[in-house]
Structure prediction request, 167 residues.
Amino acid sequence: MFASFSEDIWRCIDAERGEYCLKKRYPSRVNYLFLFAGTARSKYGGQAQEGRQAVSRNSAASGNLDKGKKLKKKFLISNNLILALISLQTKFTKMTEAKARSYILERTIDGREGFFCLMSNMDLDLLMISQKYRDKDCVKKLFSSMKSDIGIRPIRTWTDNGVYGVF
Prediction:
């Protein structure tokens, strides 16, 4: 569905933000497919940053290996009963930094950036479902700020004894 995006079929909710929605009805549910073009652009920028960081990490790791240095501790298993033999193969040696970045972007950008799907058992207007989604985020942030102000930690337990133990 995301690959077949067309401004003719999808309804524009907010032209300024580049938000589009498509409603798909099924017998037991309604899927609301969204495209937030602003999110797609920011995600692309984030993936470009990840690409730069990957190139930097690769340069450091391969440079250290070329100098005969050992791998950093995070690559090793710290269990005396396990012998881990790690080998690295880098594709970076025959590429320039610019080619390496574009190589990483080609493999991380899949065309689904900015798209997501909400499922509901209610058939609502597209503007209403979009507003409910935004309200949910606002409520989540309010609860989070209230919890941090009064110092409530997440419980992360599912049994009565576990809850009593946390308190």
Remarks:
- The chain has two domains: 1-123, 126-167.
